[in-house]
Amino acid sequence: MSTVRLLVGTCKGAFILTSDATRRQWTVDGPHFGGWEIHHVTGSPVDPDRLYLAQWTEWFGQVIQRSNDGGKTWAPVGNAFAYDGAVGTHLWYDGTPHPWEFKRVWHLEPSPTDPDTVYAGVEDAALFRTTDGGNSWHELSGLRRHDSGPQWQPGAGGMCLHTVLQDPSDPNRMYVAISAAGAFRTDDGGQTWRPINRGLKSPDMIADPEAEVGHCVHRLALHPSRPDVLFMQKHWDVMRSNDAGESWHEVSGNLPSDFGFPIAVHAHEPNTVYVVPITSESEHYPPDGKLRVYRSRSGGNDWEALTRGLPQQNCYVNVLRDAMTVDTLEPCGIYFGTTGGQVYGSPDGGDTWTPIVNDLPRVQSVEVQVLP
Amino acid sequence: MIRVALPTHLRVLAQAADEVRLDLTHQATIGEVLDALETAYPMLRGTIRDHVTQRRRPFVRFFACAQDLSLASPDTRLPSDVTNGTEPFVVVGAMAGG
Q1: What CA–CA distance (Å, rounded) separates B35 from B51?
Q2: Chain A contact for B52, CB < 8 A?
Q3: Residue B78 in domain
Q4: Among B34, B45, B48, the residue to mutate for chain A (most A Cβ within 10 A)
């Protein structure tokens, strides 16, 4: 029987949760790197025991750890993220030019074909790549050097590159998302990039309705069988693109709020999408104190609330952008972690939920691996 | 020999004992001690001072012989009680938060 392994990053350490394929009984291992903020832990698709972890504190900065044995042991690897060439400026919160400064890694995205190749999305927004298992990192500076770069501006959480999607059908095509610049696509392996934000509306933030950049994209998702169809949870609005980001249309439909952070696609049903609405940009908790995952089986617009096993009163947690994931078992498992330290799992595509663990620190990321 | 006391997080990261001992025989400067520390424990690079600028990270402080050396130039020579191993050079995570 398969083993399911959840990799959970929290603001005070990493945890590894393990179950068999029934996904009913879980063991909890951790904290790893207790006291450090773990922004992301993830594994290589081609070697699941090869794990990468981004740990950070305001005091001691960024450290990257690698495990070659599924998290039993770890070793620090390279943590030098030096921007390529002249740094230049972006806009600061007050609209004045501000030099790019590396602060931390938000997201690690391992290559689907090579366990030594990993992309890192960082703050201030840039994309780095290692091809030697994390020992050295080099910027793909065509993104930061895009003509619009000097106009990028941070969101409330900083100017972070938080999403990296690789097109499984085309190794030269990748998508990234930056708060609050927007979504970008490369078709040449990361050398050049262009914004793909047509159709996004951000009237509270941008006066120009045709603005190429300046959109606060919170998360992108795609299904590997249909990589030209993208789903987006934006600051406000849930969006969909059918043409690899050339244009977007809103699919928020009957959601109680279209503000939120994570978005995920079912592993076997490319038109089934999950979001976790929260009340508003200033109220980062579920509407009416009810924790509800919303599922659309039609690729958006028609959404149903999934509530069985989730708290339906007095619940005021949030689910952050990297804290929801799906496994590849049948039926598909869905998992998410909250800012209140709970990790919930559903072994049946979202129909029923149980808390896997209740009292972790604030959960910042959740990834899942299915091991043979 | 110079003794360096590290904060808990960096001791764990370096897999070091309570104090690190560096084989420096002359009256070393702050910068030389940090260079030697990072050579002996390369996983500490970037955690005490910036990789590129070599500036002390804002929430890291340096003390020796009851003196706060955080703002001293990297070229500042350490007191002889530190360079002869009587007192440690202390790296501290600054107090922050409520």
Answers
A1: 12
A2: yes
A3: yes
A4: B45
pLDDT, one tens digit per residue, over B28-73 is 999 999 999 999 999 999 999 999 899 999 999 999 999 999 999 9
Between chains, do B46 and A79 touch, taking CB under 8 Å as contact?
Answer: yes
Two tokens at A264? 């995920």
The pLDDT tens digits of the residues spanning A77-122 come to 999 999 999 999 999 999 999 999 999 999 999 999 999 999 999 9
The answer to whether A73 contacts chain B (CB < 8 Å) is: no
Domain range holding B82? Answer: 2-93
Contact A195, A148 (CB under 8 A): yes
Interface predicted TM-score of the whole assembly (ipTM), two decimals: 0.94
pTM: 0.96
Q: Which residues contact A20 (CB under 8 A, 6 or more apart)?
A: A1, A2, A3, A4
Residue B98 domain-assigned? no
Closest residue to A59, CB basis, from B45, B46, B59: B59
Residue B88 is assigned to a structural domain of this protein: yes
Which tokens go with B70? 């955080």
Q: Does the beta carbon of A252 lie under 8 angstroms from any beta carbon of chain B?
A: no
Q: How many domains would you assign to chain B? A: 1
What CATH number does residue B22 fall under?
3.10.20.30
Chain B CB contacts of A63 below 8 Å: 13, 43, 46-47
